[in-house]
Amino acid sequence: MLLHFYKMTGAGNDFVMVDNRDLSLSSVLDEETIEALCDRRFGIGADGLIAVEPSQGRGGIVRMRYYNADGGEAEMCGNGARCFGNFAAALLHHDKTTPLPFETMAGVVTATFEKDGNVTVNLTNPHSMQLFVLNADPAVGADVHFLNTGVPHAVAFLDRLDGLDIAKLGAYLRYHDAFSPKGTNANFARILSPG
Description:
CATH topology of the largest domain: Diaminopimelate Epimerase, Chain A, domain 1
Shape: globular
Order of helices and strands: EEHEEEHEEEEEEHE
Number of helices: 3
CATH superfamily of the largest domain: Diaminopimelate Epimerase, Chain A, domain 1
Strand content: 35-45%
Largest sheet: 8 strands, mixed
CATH class of the largest domain: Alpha Beta
Radius of gyration: 18 Å
């Protein structure tokens, strides 16, 4: 298979970007293929694959389809949305003096193009906030809270981040029963000062 793609990064996350406006890639972009493309040793290597597809008439000019590196489709990705906005604008020859609205599974997101070349996006309104989903969880060593910003996020505020086993604790939270069946993104933060 010959696949024309671009590689983009947004705040450290990297993505394989494809143009699927004619939907010709839909039959070949299955979970197994996407996982192989995102593999860092034997594929292109990426945190995910993003496809530009036609609008479904839900308020966007085009549609963003986001797939995690394991091939599973997700509602969207904030850093990926910034890359998507820039990529879609180039494909569509969009006038970057005007915002570009696009559809995601989470709702309509709008990309704005800054004079310095950066792209900002408005995320959908956060919802489903739950404080203390896991109260003083012993594995994490802290309370864990939940918020959906278009994608689900579990957040633990810790006293120290140095030496944190992100892979182990991240997997623990991602697949914890409290967030089943879909799982969640795991976030660890430290408050530096009041406010």
